[in-house]
Amino acid sequence: MTEYICVDQEHDAWKCAKCGYIENFEADGPAENGWHFCPACGREITKLSGGCQSDEPEGEE
Fold this sequence. Notes:
Layout: E1 2-8, E2 13-16, E3 22-24, E4 45-49
């Protein structure tokens, strides 16, 4: 199991806490893009942290 940490909010960059793999998403984070496992080390992603999620409530434009 691993944690994915937001390391750059502006570019939606997330890093695996175990192996250090970094991925930049077009929008949102690992969960919203269907990621359940780190593609580099294969560990299950069980926690997201770092505050890259939008502060806007859903449904607002």
